[in-house]
């Protein structure tokens, strides 16, 4: 579909199904009319998106605020002992950014991926780490992926690859072997126990130790899930390993 036809189709779609803001639930007026405009976050709520920029924690990506002297200790990932080299995130998980994640993760709202890709495009420090890397999405257990219909982390990895460009591509090198319970209400210690031996290399995974790998997930909370995945890749000889998440919180 060429650009003119695509624009017409989107315009007709907006007439039949007007885009609604994921935060305030109001109509998004003039969605997509300007370059880089969000289609599912209104102008007022878009101002509430809390983009992360350096300086930030090199492990979890959470920003450091104000002047800090000496060694910076991040309370969000203290005691994690990361098996990866560096972690970066695009936004803090609150307001409309949280709404985008919830819509994608729990309401099958694949249309919000366009706005999430736009957020990646506005996060140069994230794109810098992703460009020309092999993006490895955190896997879902097959049962959960069948129920949901997709793996949101794999979709986000695709959005990140498009935003980063270059030789960036997505490769599902991991599989989830254990159908763990929800991690939402667990602390770091409980999450780590819950995730022990929960991941393995995908069958037939072709690993190149020299390749730059970047694990991709929707949210960095305690880092336990990402670290469990990183340990599998490190044991397979992949040491050039980083982490990117859409949000932190």
Return the string of H and E elements.
Answer: HHEHHHEHHEEHEEHE
Strand order of the largest sheet: 1-7-6-2-3
Q: What Rg, in angstroms, do the CA atoms define?
A: 18 Å
- Major sheet description: 5 strands, parallel
Q: What is the straight-line distance between the termini?
A: 38 Å
Helical amount among residues, as a percent range? 25-40%
Low-confidence sequence ranges: 1-13
Q: How would you state the average pLDDT, rounded? A: 87
Shape: globular
How would you describe the overall organization of this protein?
This protein has 249 residues and is α/β, with parallel strands linked by helices. Helices cover 34% and strands 14% of the residues. The protein is built from 9 helices and 7 strands; from the N terminus they run H-H-E-H-H-H-E-H-H-E-E-H-E-E-H-E. The chain has helices spanning 3-16, 43-46, 95-106, 113-121, 124-130, 142-148, 152-164, 188-194, 224-235, and strands at 87-92, 134-137, 169-170, 174-176, 199-201, 213-220, 241-248. The strands form 2 sheets. A 5-stranded parallel sheet has the order 1-7-6-2-3, sandwiched between helices. Helix 4 packs across helix 7 (152-164). Residues 1-13 have low confidence and may be disordered.
């Amino acid at each position: 579909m060429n650009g003119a036809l695509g624009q017409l189709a989107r315009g007709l779609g907006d007439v039949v199904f007007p885009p609604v803001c994921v935060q305030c639930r109001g109509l998004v007026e003039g969605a997509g009319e300007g370059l880089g405009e969000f289609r599912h976050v209104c102008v007022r709520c878009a101002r509430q998106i809390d983009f992360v920029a350096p300086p930030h924690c090199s492990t979890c990506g959470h920003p450091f605020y104000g002047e800090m002297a000496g060694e910076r200790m991040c309370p969000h990932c203290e005691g994690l002992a990361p098996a990866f080299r560096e972690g970066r995130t695009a936004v803090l998980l609150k307001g409309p950014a949280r709404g985008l994640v919830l819509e994608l993760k729990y309401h099958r709202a694949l249309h919000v991926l366009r706005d999430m890709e736009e957020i990646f495009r506005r996060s140069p420090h994230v794109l810098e780490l992703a460009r020309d890397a092999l993006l490895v999405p955190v896997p879902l257990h097959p049962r959960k992926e069948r129920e949901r219909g997709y793996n949101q982390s794999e979709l986000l990895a695709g959005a990140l690859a498009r935003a980063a460009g270059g030789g960036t591509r997505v490769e599902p090198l991991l599989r989830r072997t254990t159908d763990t319970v929800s991690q939402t209400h667990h602390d770091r210690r409980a999450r780590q126990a819950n995730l022990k031996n929960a991941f393995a290399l995908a069958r037939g995974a072709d690993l190149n130790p020299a390749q730059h790998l970047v694990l991709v997930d929707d949210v960095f909370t305690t880092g336990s899930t990402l670290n469990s995945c990183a340990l599998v890749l490190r044991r397979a000889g992949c040491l050039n390993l980083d982490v990117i998440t859409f949000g932190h919180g």
